[in-house]
Design goal:
4 strands, single chain, 9 helices
């Protein structure tokens, strides 16, 4: 294992420990949703600046393919470290002093990674990261109390979409990153891995959107939405294969991408229920009979 890997793994380990502590202290579905919504906002930003505009490159040196190796480094940032700090700031409603401390910490880590040549900036600069976090952290802090209130209509659908996005995105990328299970060839980029990654973003956002629509529609029988999702995915898979965009390289590839969204739909049902009813406050929370 390369020295580069230890830096990324070390940062991931520390962030995961902090994340587990927060989840232990705040055991609620809304806390989990807050985390995943924070992840998805970062995923969307990364899609624009990193995948489509080549802002920087991560070099953890854990995978042989350089582009997919960079994606693995991106996971440390966007799935683990940055959203964990956002979770701490928002759940405990910490003030501007701690927001600035967290921004300075991440800017310092980014500077160190650049100096160690394990993170390469092209047109991106650390100042851009700091400015972005100056918006991102307060936004996440404001969102948490709002998220805990009962939601309906467009706001509920929007939060549901953001909450499910990381499940769809991570499940989309990891199989072809780690096992080269599939290739997408829409013809947007000359590099097949770049082409696959770019189309993978469109694919996972489409699945998240379809899943959200199925969740907000009222069904007489619960199983119908599962059947609808599976039918749509099968039709989409056939269409992509016949058009030559999708090339499956392992026997289990199609089955995984058809079945895993069903689990995401199940998770979505849990999120939908909690978004609809909100998180009980100390006043509205039912009293335990043993406390009386």
């Amino acid at each position: 294992m390369s020295t580069n890997s230890y830096w990324y793994l070390g940062l991931s380990f520390i962030s995961i420990v902090l994340m587990v502590i927060v989840f232990y202290k705040k055991q609620s579905v809304h806390t989990y949703m807050q985390f995943f919504i924070g992840v998805e906002i970062l995923y969307l930003i990364e899609a624009v600046i990193y995948i489509f505009n080549g802002s920087y490159e991560y070099r953890p040196k854990m995978l042989s393919n350089r582009y997919y190796d960079s994606h693995l480094g991106a996971i440390t940032s966007n799935l683990i470290s940055v959203p964990t700090l956002a979770l701490i700031l928002s759940v405990f409603q910490l003030g501007w002093f701690w927001i600035v401390v967290c921004i300075a910490l991440l800017a310092g880590i980014e500077w160190l990674f650049v100096e160690l040549h394990i993170y390469i900036q092209y047109w991106w600069r650390t100042a851009y990261t700091s400015l972005g976090l100056l918006v991102y952290f307060p936004l996440m802090k404001k969102m948490y109390p709002w998220l805990k209130k009962a939601r309906k209509g467009v706001s509920r659908a929007f939060l549901l979409f953001l909450g499910l996005g990381p499940f769809c995105g991570t499940a989309q990328f990891l199989p072809f990153m780690l096992f080269y299970s599939r290739v997408y060839r829409p013809g947007w980029f000359s590099d097949p891995t770049h082409d696959t990654s770019a189309f993978g973003i469109v694919y996972y956002l489409s699945v998240a959107f379809i899943t959200t629509i199925l969740l907000v529609i009222r069904w007489k029988y619960r199983w119908i939405k599962y059947g609808c999702l599976e039918t749509i995915l099968i039709m989409l898979t056939v269409l992509l294969k016949r058009s030559g965009i999708l090339i499956s390289q392992l026997w289990w590839d199609v089955y995984l991408y058809l079945l895993f969204p069903l689990l995401i739909l199940y998770i979505g049902e849990i999120f939908y229920k909690h978004l609809t009813r909100g998180e009980p406050t100390d006043i509205t929370r039912p009293s335990n009979i043993n406390d009386q």
